[in-house]
């Protein structure tokens, strides 16, 4: 069943666990993620990253995502990740997405508030949820010494109040993609943000974190955990060997991608405590 971000995250108020948000690229990815959620009986979020909107046939993939969400036997939210323009947010809303992220993290604080607030007003008027971002979740390297990289708890409080976002992505030491070195997360900062902010909190750059890190993040207040790279790494690692061995190549490849994604999503969801919820 298709639901918005608020509805899908509301389950974390009843039991402490992390809802998985898995970005994908094709129907096989989304089927694999939903198979995992149906097997574990948990709510789930399927997403597409803004940087792929122009590379994929967005309106086509949106139809597929929404069809799969409606057909699922568990609550599924369909989310646009890291949108930087109102144009793509409007495309997603028009296509039937139930959640959009406006990533204004590269803007000045006041400008980020202003733009995010405008988007919240538009999206909420049609029942679509909004995620905002404060601080920098980069790619590859985290600059631990630069205070500007981290989300400041006092700013998070002001941002959440003024924008009325449903969820806030925070920067506590994670990065997107493959980590260079061992990640070192600032749990004290996370717990301070949690104390000051009422909306749901989001962890970006989940791939590559340890089980312990995930569990601590959820314990300290994260409600939504984003994963993409680990799905692609699992496909990259397992598909070439499979292709060498199989004869029924073309149909089998698509089934195999779905299965690899399903197993990787199950592994993550179990760590997040995301099972037996529905
Ligand atoms: P990873 O690709 O590092 O898992 O990050 C996913 C993410 O945060 C998408 O917004």
Task: Note down, in words, how this protein is organized.
The protein has an eight-stranded parallel barrel, surrounded by eight helices. The radius of gyration is 18 Å and the shape is globular. The protein has eleven helices and nine strands. It is of the alpha/beta class. The model has no long low-confidence stretch (mean pLDDT 96). The structure holds 1,3-dihydroxyacetonephosphate (13P). Residues 23, 81-82, 176-177, 204-207, 226-230 line the site of 1,3-dihydroxyacetonephosphate.
Low-confidence stretches: none
Distinct small molecules: 1,3-dihydroxyacetonephosphate
Instruction: Give the distance, in angstroms, between the N- and C-terminal Cα atoms.
Output: 12 Å
CATH topology: TIM Barrel
Mean pLDDT across all amino acids: 96
β-strand number: 9
Strand composition percent = 15-25%
The helicity comes to 40-55%
Return the CATH architecture. Answer: Alpha-Beta Barrel
- Give the overall shape, derived from the CA principal axes: globular
Number of structurally distinct domains: 1
Strand order in space, largest sheet: 2-3-4-5-6-7-8-9
**What is the succession of H and E elements?**
EHEHEHHEHEHEHEHEHEHH
Structural class: alpha/beta
Q: Key features?
A:
278 residues, TIM Barrel, globular, alpha/beta, binds 1,3-dihydroxyacetonephosphate, eight-stranded parallel barrel, FBA_II
What would you say about this model in short?
This is Ketose-bisphosphate aldolase. By secondary structure, this protein is of the alpha/beta class. It contains eleven helices and nine strands.
């Amino acid at each position: 069943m298709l639901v918005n971000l608020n509805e899908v995250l509301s389950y974390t108020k009843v039991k402490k666990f992390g809802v998985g948000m898995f970005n994908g690229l094709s129907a096989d990815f989304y089927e694999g993620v939903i198979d995992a959620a149906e097997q574990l009986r948990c709510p789930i979020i399927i997403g597409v990253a803004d940087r792929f909107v122009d590379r994929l046939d967005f309106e086509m993939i949106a139809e597929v995502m929404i069809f799969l969400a409606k057909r699922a036997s568990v609550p599924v939210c369909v989310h646009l990740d890291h949108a930087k323009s109102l144009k793509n947010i409007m495309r997603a809303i028009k296509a039937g997405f139930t959640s959009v992220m406006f990533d204004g993290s590269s803007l000045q604080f006041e400008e980020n508030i202003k733009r995010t607030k405008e988007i919240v007003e538009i999206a909420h008027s049609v029942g679509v949820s909004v995620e905002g971002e404060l601080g920098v979740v980069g790619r590859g390297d985290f600059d631990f010494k630069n205070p500007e990289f981290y989300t400041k708890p006092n700013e998070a409080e002001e941002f959440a109040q003024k924008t009325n976002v449903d969820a806030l992505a925070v920067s506590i030491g994670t990065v997107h993609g493959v980590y260079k070195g061992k990640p070192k997360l600032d749990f004290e900062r996370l717990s301070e943000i949690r104390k000051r902010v009422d909306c749901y909190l989001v962890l970006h750059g989940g791939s590559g974190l340890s089980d312990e890190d995930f569990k601590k993040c959820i314990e300290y207040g994260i409600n939504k955990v984003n994963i993409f790279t680990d799905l692609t790494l699992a496909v990259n690692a397992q598909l070439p060997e499979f292709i060498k061995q199989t004869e029924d190549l073309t149909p089998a490849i698509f089934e195999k991608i779905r299965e690899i994604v399903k197993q990787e999503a199950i592994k993550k969801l179990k760590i997040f405590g995301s099972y037996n919820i529905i």
